[in-house]
Amino acid sequence: MPLNVPDNLPAIDVLKEENIFIMTETVAIHQDIRPLRIAILNLMPVKVTTEIHLLRMLSNSPLQAEISLINIKNHVSKNTSQQHLETFYLNFDQIKNQNFDGLIITGAPVEHLEFEEVTYWGEIKEIMDWAKSHVTSTFYICWAAQAGLFHHYGIEKHAVDKKIFGVFQHQVNNSKIPLLRGFDDEFMAPHSRFTDIFRDDVLNVKELEIAAESPEAGVYIVVSRDGKQVFVTGHSEYDLLTLKMEYDRDVAKGIAIDVPRNYFPGNDPTQYPRALWKGHASLLFSNWLNYYVYQQTPYSIDDIS
Fold first, then answer.
1. Known catalytic residues?
2. Domain 3-158+171-180+195-238+278-300, CATH number (from 3.40.225.10, 3.40.50.880, 1.20.910.10, 3.30.70.1070)
3. Could you read off the pLDDT of 134-190 as tens digits, one per residue?
4. Burial group, residue 17, by CB count within 10 angstroms (0-12, 13-18, 19+)
């Protein structure tokens, strides 16, 4: 898909080296087409890295998408320059009167806190409520998936004894769900989290369906039956070296951390890791864009409700 992104966004150079079609705003305005409007609420600390991850995933489709990057209004980022945020990001007040075809809410490094203890929890709740009437479909990732399930359906998150960290095998529960169209019966996906949700808690909510799960990593993909919400507890968007960087970072800090499972050959961190999830990740995002956004959104974006 030609992605319409702000001119001079740093991620453009990285993605062009991968032969991903990136279209700047200057070029896009000359095309007589209504692109999908996709907002990304980026809660991750190193925002440029997450931009690259998600734009890479969104590129694998013939659909044109106009990307808007959103930031929490009253949160000071320690790992991304203020200049970058001021140049490329909007806050919620600037977009809350607009409609979007799709919204992605990323994970955030706040798992150790109860939801109500997160300093920007009030704004996150406001955005999640706004999305129900202003967005055709919302894609929640990792911490955001747990936050969305808690806020919308009262499903609690629970701390685990040992970090769920690595690349795990998953199974498809219902191959007729459009989000899973083309998936193998079993597939791999990365996880990196300290909390989990209980399967039975999801099954008790009639509006939700568990689309895919893992014997080791637990519930992975939960879909609302109306398609307006997709909750993914892992990080399918991660690139090859992301888990390695997280592992090396914690080792350097003296933090006790297990080697990410099923990631390094022979579970040996001196070996170069293997990418076992790229096909699944690409299909997951392209299916969401096609079946849950493009085929559901009205021709006039003003008609989204």
1. 142, 235, 237
2. 3.40.50.880
3. 999 999 999 999 999 999 999 999 999 999 999 999 999 999 999 999 999 999 999
4. exposed
- The H helix count followed by the E strand count for the chain is 10, 12
Region of 218 (left: φ > 0; alpha: ψ -120 to 50; beta: rest) is left
Reduced to 3 states (helix: H, G, I; strand: E, B; else coil), residue 106 is coil
Give the global pTM.
0.90
Whether pLDDT at 194 is above 90: yes
Q: Which residues contact 118 (CB under 8 A, 6 or more apart)?
A: 108, 110, 124
Instruction: Give the residue among 202, 228, 214 at the shortest CA–CA distance from 280.
Output: 214
Between the CA of residue 170 and those of 17, 89, 130, 167, 278, what are the distances in Å? 31, 35, 32, 10, 14
E strand intervals along 134-293: 135-141, 158-172, 186-196, 208-214, 218-224, 229-232
Cα angle 126, 5, 84 (rounded to 5 degrees) comes to 70
Using alpha carbons only, what angle is made at residue 36 by residues 134 and 230, rounded to the nearest 5 degrees? 60
Q: What is the pLDDT of residues 225-261, one digit of tens each?
A: 999 999 999 999 999 999 999 999 999 999 989 999 9
Bridge partner list, 68: 39
Q: Where are the alpha helices (DSSP H) in the chain?
A: 11-17, 25-28, 47-58, 82-88, 92-95, 121-134, 143-153, 199-203, 242-252, 278-287
What 3-state DSSP class applies to 259?
coil
